[in-house]
Design brief:
Blueprint: H1 2-8, H2 30-55, E1 62-71, E2 74-83, H3 88-92, H4 94-108, H5 112-115, E3 116-122, E4 142-143, E5 146-147, H6 150-169
Parallel strand pairs: 2-3
Antiparallel strand pairs: 1-2, 4-5
Helix pairs in contact: 2-4
């Protein structure tokens, strides 16, 4: 618009633009920020879709929602992955999926971790997840799929302390020398 006014002239006196307010992005940068945000949104969406296809995850199982957020003059991109089809394999591979998406985006934008605000997973209430109740709290005592019996551990510790105490009560002179 300014170019047209300069080329063809105007009868009005040119207006002096108001100085930009502190903390607010200038109007001249706003289209540029929107363009960058739009490009980044599309990049994240396409890379997430490509990772889904490369991993063999069927279409329709994940919905990619890419949302921008303007904060302190910078645009952050948030990726929400809505799980539309329950599958235990998908749950187990969420971290690997996220890492791959980030790596793919970083191939094009090396500073992506500075503007990707979050990657989240959403399981709608109406999902077909078979787990409807929380398990017994004892399930969290499992380590590497091996049950830890507290009584067994306490018995082992008691035996070790008994050996130690017996060893300490024996005078050094009567202990066998190595």
């Amino acid at each position: 618009m300014d170019l047209i006014k300069r080329l063809f002239g105007t009868t009005k006196q040119a207006e002096v633009p108001a100085p930009p307010q502190l903390g607010a992005p200038s109007d001249s940068r706003m289209p540029e920020q929107e363009s960058v945000a739009g490009t980044r949104r599309e990049l994240v969406r396409v890379m997430a879709r490509d990772v889904q296809r490369a991993a063999g995850i069927p279409d329709g199982w994940l919905e990619m929602q890419v949302m921008p957020e303007l904060s302190r003059g910078q645009t952050f991109i948030h990726l929400r992955l809505v799980v539309r089809h329950w599958d235990e394999r998908l749950v187990n591979l969420q971290v690997a999926f996220q890492r791959r998406v980030l790596a793919e985006v970083e191939r094009f934008e090396p500073d992506a971790r500075q503007w990707i605000g979050s990657i989240t997973w959403l399981y709608p209430d109406d999902s077909d997840c078979p787990h409807t109740d929380l398990p017994d709290p004892a399930i969290w005592k499992k380590v590497d799929h091996v049950d830890i019996e507290i009584d067994d551990v306490q018995e082992d510790l008691a035996r070790l302390f008994a050996v130690r105490d017996a060893e300490m009560s024996t005078p050094l002179s009567s202990r066998p020398q190595p």
